[in-house]
Every structure is written in C-alpha cells, then in structure tokens.
Amino acid sequence: MEREYHVPVLLDESVNGLEIKANGDYVDVTYGGGGHSREIFSRLKTGRLFAFDQDEDAAANVIQDDRFFFIRHNFKYIRNFLKYYDLEQVDGILADLGVSSHDFDVAERGFSFRFDGDLDMRMNRDSSQTAADIVNSYTEDQLRTVFREYGEIDNAGRLAKQLVSARNAKPVQTIEQFKEAIAPCVSRLQESKYLAKVFQALRIETNHEMDVLHEFLEQSIKLLKPGGRLVVITYHSLEDRMVKNFIRSGDFTGKQEKDFFGNVESPLVAINRKVIVPSEDEIERNPRARSAKLRIAEKNA
After folding, report:
1. Please, what is the Cα angle at 209 between 203 and 213, to 5 degrees?
2. Residue 113: per-residue pLDDT
3. For position 15, which CATH number holds?
C-alpha cells in the first residue's frame, strides 16, 4: 500500500524546469515519498524514470510500472547504476537535497530536536556510523570543524569543548542527552535556530552529504545529453554555493574560463539567472519549503 509521507517542495517549478519529453529518460536521485517522481512520470508516455533512494522507507512508495526503476542506493553511484541499465545519457536529472519531512517526523530516525530518541541521523540505516558515534569519538578539533563548516556556528570551538567535556562524564546516545550536553552553549533567545544548525552539521557529517553532492554533480555533466536539464533544490548555503559554482563554471570554484574570443567555456548554462524560491503561499502550506532554492541548468550542445 502506498504511503504519502512527504510534501514535495517547488513541485511545478522543478518539474517544469526539466522540460519533460514524453519519450525521454529521466532520473530523480532523491525519490523520498515520490512526489516529484510521480509528477515527472505523469508527463511521460513512452519515456522511463529511474529513481534513487537509500532509505528503506522510500521503497514503500514506489511507482508500479514497467517504465519506472527504483534503485535503493546512494545517488553518488548514479553513473554505475545507469550503466547497469545500458543507459549512457539521459534527458534530465532532478535532485531535491532536503531530508524527507517523514524522516523529521519519526523520532527514532534522530533527525529532529523536537523529539527524544537515538542520536542516529543515518539516511541509510545499513550504514555503520551514526551521529552518536561522531559525537562520542571525534576529537575536539574534528567536532569544531564539523560545526563550523557544516553548521556555520559562531561558537563552534566552545561547543566542541563543551561536548567533549560532557561525553567524558557520560557517553551521549540520545537526542535529549545531546541537548543537555550542549545546553550551556545555547542561547535561549535563539534556541531553535541554533539547534537546527547543530543538527544540520551532524546530519551532513553522518551522511557525508557534501562529498556525495560533489561526486553527483561531477557525474551529471557526462550523464546529460546535449540540451539535457539539471534541476537541483537546495536547503542551506553550503549546498547552494556548491551547485551555483558548478553551474557557473563546471567546477567548484565558480571561476569561469574563457576561450580566445572571450566566450565563457562551461559545460552548463544557467536557465534561471536568479534563484527560484517558494511563494509565500507554499511556505504557509509547507514550512519546510522556507529555505528552499531552485537552480536549473542545461547542458551545452
């Protein structure tokens, strides 16, 4: 039985950005609850859709059709698995980089500071390393780097020092234990905002999200047909900066190279020069959309 547990963000804008061809081949690398995939598939006639998701819960929502292929693996392996299906290039790729709203609402997944439960945060529950493992085993320097780089937390040094002190007294295994351990570093006036940044940093490190995004973007250029579309929805500045730079220059510096005649040499061209954000109506219906940013690019012929 299908379960709809996730409200897709920027649904029309992102799928329209793919410029769906009825007979094309498309990839949704973040299937989740299947919202984006179902909209893509509804616009296909003879075309095929390949969807990736490493979360076992996503398998409960798969589309039952011979032209739909569900691949329960991390999308950093996109090229290998498409090759398995004898597919060298596709017409479009969509990535919604946010965590499923379903995962935020399930206490035992450990993604949300609203509930108590194990400090887990694994998107793939077959992975061995949890957020608790990071909290209890990383050095103070490593923790400071994680919180500073992935959470952009101002007092990352103090936070790391406090966490190491707390875990030395007692291992940190649950969300409540973690919140208690770092409480001296949290401003009561900005508690929710601060905890959101801390949890974001731990989640990114637990799932190696920036490394995965890096690998995925590099593969996407080779996988897209000339004129094929890359559509990416990001939720925090680190992701968005990486995607923006990659679309701009084809690498992660964002520095554009020019040929002898002064023409910009980049494998991609941005379709939306200005980032697309959700309307106030969508944010009201789905608060998770508040931080979403959509970027669309086309592969140069």
Report:
1. 160
2. 55
3. 3.40.50.150
To the nearest whole number, what is the mean pLDDT of the chain? 90
pLDDT tens, residue by residue, 235-258: 999 999 999 999 999 888 877 777
8-64, pLDDT tens digit by residue? Answer: 999 999 999 999 999 999 999 999 999 999 999 999 999 999 999 998 888 888 999
Domain match, 231 and 262 both? yes
One domain for residues 268 and 202: no
Report the candidate in 221, 275, 257, 214 with the shortest Cα–Cα distance to residue 239: 214
Select from 67, 175, 95 the least CA-distant residue to 131: 175
pLDDT attached to residue 105: 45
The β-bridge partners of 68 are: 49
* Chosen domain end from 175, 207, 239: 207
Q: What is the pLDDT of residues 113-128, one digit of tens each?
A: 566 689 998 988 778 8
> Whose CA is closest to 90, among 146, 44, 122, 31?
44
Residues 51 and 128 in one domain: no
- Counting the structural domains of the chain, the total is 2
Number of residues that make up the chain = 301
Q: What is the pLDDT of residue 4?
A: 47
Q: Give the per-residue pLDDT at 217.
A: 97
